[in-house]
Amino acid sequence: MKRKNKKAQVKIQEMAFVLLAVVFLVALLFLFFARFQYSQLQESVTQVREARTITMLSVVASLPELRCSSSFSSASEIACIDKDKVDVFNKGGNIRKKYTKIWQAAQISKITIDEIYPEGQSYLIYTQEPGESTETYATYIPLCEETTGNLKCVVAKIRITTNMP
Amino acid sequence: MKKAQFQFAWIFAVIVGALILFLAFYFAGTFLLQQRHEQTTVETQFLDIITDPFSYLGSMGATTYKQLELPKEYEIIIECSTSTSMEMLGKNTITLMEKNEAGIQRNLYNKYLYFEQPFKAKKINALSKPFEMPWRVSDIIIFWPADQEYCFVDAPFKIKNEVERLEIETIKTETKKINCEENAITVCFEGGNCDVVVYDSKIEKDDGTIYYTGDALMYAGIFSDKLIYDCNLKRLASRLNTQALIYEEKSLSLLQKGCSINYNLQNIKEISSQIADPNKFISATSIENLQKEADALGRANSNYCTLF
After folding, report:
1. Measured between alpha carbons, how far is B68 from B53 in angstroms, rounded to an integer?
2. Are residues B109 and A101, on separate chains, in Cβ contact within 8 Å?
3. Under an 8 A CB cutoff, do A64 and B108 touch?
4. pTM for the predicted model, two decimal places
5. Contact B45 A4 (CB under 8 A)
6. ipTM > 0.90, yes or no
7. CB B182 within 8 A of CB B169
8. A117 occurs within a structural domain
9. Which of A118, B34, B212, B302 has the greatest count of CB atoms below 10 A from its CB?
């Protein structure tokens, strides 16, 4: 009688261990799957953020606050940046502060415009503390200045640094 | 004894089995909800990116029309808030909802979205127009569901021509209201018994009177709720005010370069500041004054020393 009782207890223990193993296996599979999903999600976030940043390059270049005046004789159809407007942002202060949210929403941590041909001044449009991982995208654009009756342009490079997930 | 052991084994198996089943259903449910949440969030981002008039809809500052298509039907919730000390240019927030499940809200600080609530659609018509006062302040984007037809009755030649040029299928132009489709929203120009009546500087709708100036705001007024319209107009005025500060600095720089024209931006700054004030109603006079001031600046803008 006692032997039979012990045998039943062993069987229950066996069953409990099997069930525990099943639960453990399911949990392991779930963890693996969650990890896979997370990496997929991270990848799609990176892709969206990259697309957003590349879009932001053209947004920055065509922002009315930076773009050349539409009535500049040779600049009405081409994208170019107005040096006088860039100067206002470069000074910082309240103007730069007003546009902070636009850049923050796009996870941008820094925007600079550098005169590269001929090499000249660098202008800071926006900056904040960068995240742990950042990526910088750049494009070339004419940087033009209105003088009395003339338009003087140099080649510039816009650099946008974005925080990556 | 044997019977009791047998029962215990069954009870144990049922409890653990139920636990496993519960966990399986719980995680599967959570996963599906998360998938839907993720989907709506990604679609919101997608909508944000493709509504950049520069990146997708067309060239800078030009009037463009495009039909956007989401992967499935969503309820699109767009809210507007005017400028605050933290968010100086105000914002639009966009959320996509599917079966009462909302994605992550997205804040849009440089976009001005006009639409009429409730807004549930898979295909969306998007019209982008530059708002100029007198320089290009920003592009405004007007949304309406692709299955909602509008009928413009006796529209001015310029409007009729533009609608035809842009090939907007859901805007029909008719000379008489009787020719409009039964379910179409009718828009009369210069009086009449229509859902929307457009006058020279105001638009009469069910939810009130909208004051406008220029084509961009006229379209915005036709296709938008008064609440959204007024809020976004205040945001635009706030942006115009900031831009006036930039142009003021530029005019000083032009003076230093030898330009003899002294541009006066004080008036446009004051009027735009009044319109942008969240505690004040937008009046017909303020809109009229803003247009007058913009026209005066437009005339003063010289080819010799171009300000804008």
Report:
1. 12
2. yes
3. no
4. 0.84
5. no
6. no
7. no
8. yes
9. B212
